[in-house]
Amino acid sequence: MKQLFYFSLAFLSIIACKKEPKNYLSFSGKITDKNSDSLLILNPKTGFKKTIKLNSDGTFSDTLNIKSGLHVIFDGKEKTTAYFKNGLELNMTLDTKNFHETVSFSGEGATESNFLAEAFLLEEGLIKNREIFNLSKEDFDAKLKSYTANFKKRLLDNNSDSIFVADQEKRLNTIINYIEKYYNQTSSLTKGMVSPKFVNYENFTGGTTSLDDLKGKYVFIDIWATWCIPCLNQIPFLKKVEKEFHGKNIEFIGISIDQKKDHELWKKMVVDKELKGTQLFADNNWNSDFIKSYKINGIPRFILIDPEGNIIDSKTPRPSDPELMKLLKSLKL
Length: 333
What we know:
This protein is α+β, with helices and mostly antiparallel strands. It has helices spanning 2-17, 99-102, 110-128, 137-157, 162-186, 229-233, 235-244, 263-272, 289-293, 322-330; strands spanning 25-32, 38-43, 48-53, 59-64, 69-74, 79-84, 89-95, 104-108, 201-203, 208-209, 218-224, 250-256, 278-281, 301-305, 311-313. Among the domains are: 19-99, Immunoglobulin-like; 201-330, Glutaredoxin, CATH 3.40.30. It is 37% helix and 24% strand. The longest helix is centred in the middle third of the chain and has 25 residues, at 162-186.
């Protein structure tokens, strides 16, 4: 009987000492060269929002009562994504000078968040690398097949939460479908293909200009509009590029897709902004054949064409991107 008593006492002691699962997430870390004095945590699906204050040295520590899922961490300038779940103790470090390259998670529940950080870099490299859209269909399919296999292997090797795995598999399908759709839309706009043509566009200096008039020269085209702030932000950078290649065998063309009601505003802006190069006015704004042929649905958009009228790059880097200068210098103008 005494033995049974001691056994029961020991059993109750084990139960009493058993750690109860926390109904909150412990989140701490350090931001090097912080962009602001706080972090904003968001979950667009649930509407969750919380601000975490940063100490003067960039460290932080807080608890969050949340529903499991992906949460955006915004530092006032850039953002990353983490997988949050109650009961975890998660630590995050990053250096804002190389934000996405240095995001790192440790502690309980770090596996999923580190997967997301790596996946962002791989996805960015795949989508932002325009060369993938210049590949042959066979090479394009092989590239996506390799990316998909690598994604699934990393997901499997991580032994991640089942809900997280299901969510990431859906995301993978979304990414692949987007890339395939874009490839199919732009497959006729790859390097070496004959460029669609604009014909008899009004020239600011008088008369009209067609793409065929520029045969024998490289042509750098800037698609813009007077109402487009990102377009206007590129003007100072574009002027520097034009100055660098002034007198070379390249024609800089600006094509406004403003509506006809803003025709006078276009002419005024060309003067006020002292726009250089050849300034043209598209014949039917967004619905111009040239714009639709290039499947342009956002501006600014830059296009580079060779002296024979063939596409070099249907989505050339912006003037603010140092890659544009490298590209133009490679042409040995």
